[in-house]
Amino acid sequence: MSNRESMLVPEATECDYLPDVLTIFVVGASGDLAKKKTYPSLFDLHRHGFLISDKTIICGYARSPKSDEDFRDQLMPYLKDGTEEEKKEFLDLCIYRKGAYDSTDDVASVFEELKEKEAELGEGGKVNRLFYFAIPPTVFVPIGKSIKEAVIDRAGESVGWSRLIVEKPFGKDSESFQELSSDMKALYSEDYIYRIDHYLGKEMVQNLLILRFSNAIFEPLWNRNHVKSVTITFKENFGTKGRGGYFDSYGIIRDVIQNHLLQVMSLVAMEPPVKVTGEGSANYIRDEKVKVLNCIDPVKLEDCVLGQYLAAPDGSEVAYTEDDTVPDDSVTPTFATIVLWIKNPRWDGVPFIIKAGKALNERKADIRVQFKNAPGSGNLFDGQTITENELVMRLQPDEAVYIKTNVKKPGLATKPIMSELDLSYKERYDVELFDAYTRLILEVIRGRQATFVRDDELKASWDIFTPLLHQIDDGKVNPILYEYGSRGPPESDQLTERVGYHYHGGNYTWEKNETIGEQEI
Ligand SMILES: NC(=O)C1=CN([C@@H]2O[C@H](COP(=O)(O)OP(=O)(O)OC[C@H]3O[C@@H](n4cnc5c(N)ncnc54)[C@H](OP(=O)(O)O)[C@@H]3O)[C@@H](O)[C@H]2O)C=CC1
Ligand SMILES: O=C1O[C@H](COP(=O)(O)O)[C@@H](O)[C@H](O)[C@H]1O
């Protein structure tokens, strides 16, 4: 058995749902998300043995008419990696039915057919049902109501669990979130609902709690006495790429900061939960995330820099406002650096810097914990440069954890240089890292809610950003313009420096698998 297989198999054997029939009902199956993420992830689960052909029904549901064959042809180009035979076997499981989202009758009539299939496959055994909402939030409640009346309320004794996966955006501010949340709560209790934030499914984000709490070396340092700043960065080297219509009414804060990056930050900053894995851990973890979010004051304008991208200097890329789907006078930010302050005994005074932008110089996401300088090091080393240690966890591309550390430059001189303790995943592990969606759908099937966002977490996160978002929506803040392909507005570096982040600049170069410099005597 290869290393790759050995890392997969124990997971498959943990799946106690496998003997039951599983019906997956994908609402919005004709849409972009379903094609690009939901179905490819279901395919991944199927070809790795997490979904069993003669126990699984996958039914797509949306308003447009389509035959099963047409639907399968549309999915085919999005299925990557597997063999043609694996693709065919998976697509044979996928059927498509048309219906309205607000029609209990339409959903009921599809389920009449599905119940027959379930009975055929189940041979009297148990049936579980997963409903995936790959739809805009405006239709969460209508389809939620139709499913409840047509399926959940009429579930017979053979039905085991029913679970709902819902996708962001969960509102646009505190008020719209509350409205959506109370409408959904009137239909479903919290244990039915799995709110996806795909950043929680990324390998390195899943690694955070293990790294923090299973190593004796980190937790004693993880506080205001030793940490100087924490930076969470998200950069994309492309613009809104035709998604300007959606993006313009959201902006970068609603698009990635209020959700993905704040989720990552709450895992970095929270107190240890009662349990990280096993029985009860989902609520223990989420309790701690909410607590830390509730210690953050709403963002003040002076703690943020907003930007919007211009065209590329060589003319190869157009400015944000030149996108046909964006109004010419839009002031929607495509870049933001925001400093958050956690008012609790662990973090009081430590800046948590969240930086996110589109059309920048590179694509990357990372977490950077910068530690304070070693006490007395200036004197000990005769004024030679000693730089602050940094623990960096790179989420993408190329997952890595490295600690920037001062060591003696190899050779005869006694000169400190910055080097790294380096764990690069590609070099260390021969294992397929699954897409975040694949991982998260499997977690839903296993009934593990820890990596899904609870209602009260969302409330707390909207409360942090809502006053700022309203100022932006009211046109009270003009973003600073930056060139496509740059690092964003220079004011961002000025802000991070002002709050205490120290950029090491030319003191450090990473030279993969190469020797460092000339030997000094
Ligand atoms: N295992 C591995 O794969 C390892 C890879 N490396 C690589 O080595 C390189 C250097 O690593 P590292 O030192 O961690 O990261 P960088 O030097 O790229 O950046 C460090 C931080 O400084 C910021 N920054 C960059 N330029 C400026 C500036 N002019 N003023 C203020 N802030 C600035 C960056 O912000 P911003 O992102 O916004 O530009 C980033 O947050 C990277 O490419 C890294 O991937 C290093 C160690 C191990
Ligand atoms: O949710 C979103 O995330 C993507 C970035 O996801 P990643 O996994 O590729 O980092 C972002 O491009 C998009 O604008 C946003 O809506």
From TrEMBL:
Family, per the entry? Belongs to the glucose-6-phosphate dehydrogenase family.
Know the name of this protein?
Glucose-6-phosphate 1-dehydrogenase
Which InterPro entries does the annotation name? Answer: G6P_DH (IPR001282), G6P_DH_AS (IPR019796), G6P_DH_C (IPR022675), G6P_DH_NAD-bd (IPR022674), NAD(P)-bd_dom_sf (IPR036291)
Q: Which GO terms describe its molecular function?
A: glucose-6-phosphate dehydrogenase activity; NADP binding
Q: Which residues form the Glucose-6-phosphate dehydrogenase NAD-binding domain?
A: 26-207
Q: What does this protein do?
A: Catalyzes the rate-limiting step of the oxidative pentose-phosphate pathway, which represents a route for the dissimilation of carbohydrates besides glycolysis.
EC number(s) on record?
1.1.1.49
Q: Which positions fall inside the Glucose-6-phosphate dehydrogenase C-terminal domain?
A: 209-504
Q: Does the keyword NADP apply?
A: yes
Instruction: Provide the top EC class.
Output: oxidoreductase
Its organism's taxonomic lineage begins at: Eukaryota, Sar, Stramenopiles, Ochrophyta, Bacillariophyta
Q: Which domain of life is it from?
A: Eukaryota
Q: Which PROSITE patterns match?
A: G6P_DEHYDROGENASE
Q: Which NCBIfam families match?
A: zwf
Q: A single GO BP annotation from the record?
A: glucose metabolic process
Which reactions does this protein catalyse? D-glucose 6-phosphate + NADP(+) = 6-phospho-D-glucono-1,5-lactone + NADPH + H(+)
Q: Does the keyword Coiled coil apply?
A: no
User: In which pathway is this protein known to take part?
Assistant: Carbohydrate degradation; pentose phosphate pathway; D-ribulose 5-phosphate from D-glucose 6-phosphate (oxidative stage): step 1/3
Ordered alphabetically, the record's keywords are: Carbohydrate metabolism, Glucose metabolism, NADP, Oxidoreductase
